[in-house]
Amino acid sequence: xxxxxxxxxxxxxxxxxxxxxxxxxxxxxxxxxxxxxxxxxxxxxxxxxxxxxxxxxxxxxxxxxxxxxxxxxxxxxxxxxxxxxxxxxxxxxxxxxxxxxxxxxxxxxxxxxxxxxxxxxxxxxxxxxxxxxxxxxxxxxxxxxxxxxxxxxxxxxxxxxxxxxxx
Amino acid sequence: xxxxxxxxxxxxxxxxxxxxxxxxxxxxxxxxxxxxxxxxxxxxxxxxxxxxxxxxxxxxxxxxxxxxxxxxxxxxxxxxxxxxxxxxxxxxxxxxxxxxxxxxxxxxxxxxxxxxxxxxxxxxxxxxxxxxxxxxxxxxxxxxxxxxxxxxxxxxxxxxxxxxxxxxxxxxxxxxxxxxxxxxxxxxxxxxxxxxxxxxxxxxxxxxxxxxxxxxxxxxxxxxxxxxxxxxxxxxxxxxxxxxxxxxxxxxxxxxxxxxxxx
Lengths: 167, 263
Hints:
The structure holds two protein chains of two kinds. Chain A is an alpha/beta fold. Chain A is 28% helix and 30% strand.
């Protein structure tokens, strides 16, 4: 085998390998839009986080602005403490509210931020005080049934209560 | 009673020889590193070996990657469509390839395609006393024969693993878009939203680098350590494939455990 042909093939081989690596990094992965450089963290306390998981997205007006980087339980107040790492380019007012939402019926759980009107902005380590917990479907149904039953027997869908109780 | 003692003895002998081999392999690794200067001074030696182990494995790696990706796509579609989630097929294919299948299957294929060839080559040189002849001429066989093969294998495997994953994702794309009829934009955007560079892609690259070093050291050591007979070389070749496969899978388990736990 001639030396030059070997060199050529090895060159093609290396080139293909690096192209594949770049493909994996930029086309398959998210390196292109990775803005993990400058960020700040804020804390939000919830009564119930439902199905929220680590690394869940944080969105404002539906746009991705950060991720949930830590979830703890406050042992004194029995509240869930979620740490949100937000992109430094986005500054939110102090009275921003955080709510746990689900995209679609079976979609991923994320935290939605609704900006308030405060002059001051959230800084590193601040706490979002206005929070809305996750909607737990079972409780919602329970409340619905409870309120239906409280309406009395003349309510049109009253038989639904014993029927669902049998399940 | 006597046979019991004998079997315990045999167990002990095996244990000692396993530990001895591990130690010899570590010393051999150090020897290779110490003799690697030649590879830097004469890169043509390494390039030649990359041709034989890397370029020659291209076809098998790329074809297997394509097929594995297509099978993943078809199987994934079967299950995902039950939950109405066929749009996430790209995520399934990309994550399983980039994280696991790419590095592991490439490692196994590379060990059987190139690792066995390296062992057989070095073993045959030993059996025909070429290594001894080099020693006589004051040429260090580790620097001239072993180190280039080692570095070629260690360099080739990560590149091949990346190509395997890329081909696999391409195969999954073909199945998703051409066979099933998913929207190509949804395929890519879901994939990009779910695959993280640092956690998933880089993790796969780290794995493939580790496998590359493992296969390279095992293949060269088994060849250099082979009994210099035809039978010894054939045994060494078998051992390369078996040991490489087991090592790759066990390293994979350890690395995956570390990566998933986020340490």
